[in-house]
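Look at a sample.

——
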Amino acid sequence: MAYSQYAPPRATQDVDLVVLTEDVGKVRQLFPGGYVRGTAIAELYDFEGTHFDVQPARLRAQVATVMNAVDDTYEGEPIKVASVRDLLLLKVWAAAERHEITQRERDKADAMELLAYNADKISADDIAYIARYLLTLGFTAEEKEKYRRSVVWLNQTLDELEMPDRKFPFE
């Protein structure tokens, strides 16, 4: 839903919700009878044919995404959606974590569209925040390299979109 607030909507199979850990129990109250099953990452719900993945905000960036959510509306109802900066971070991070190439490329395409459609809303400080966060995620040499490649990709994408003034200076 947040993606469709910042870029042209695309077909999706589900709605991803990130909620504070202490609010996960409230979700079952919102979707009585909708709980399908839980996984290691999310609780799955079905409500009137729409599939919801509810993820507890366990990591710093997820908590920040919830806390920084911005007011919006959906079909006339007030909602909170991720800020464009936080959504961009989650997309680039997800791409780095994906093993399936089609999903990884979809996340990269989403990140590229977020950048392209929101050039006026994404600053060099936002890119630095994203890059610094990604670079703190790796513990092993392999993980550090994976996230370094994500930042390189982000910088290359900024070049392609003619936004070189926002690149993260490293290397």
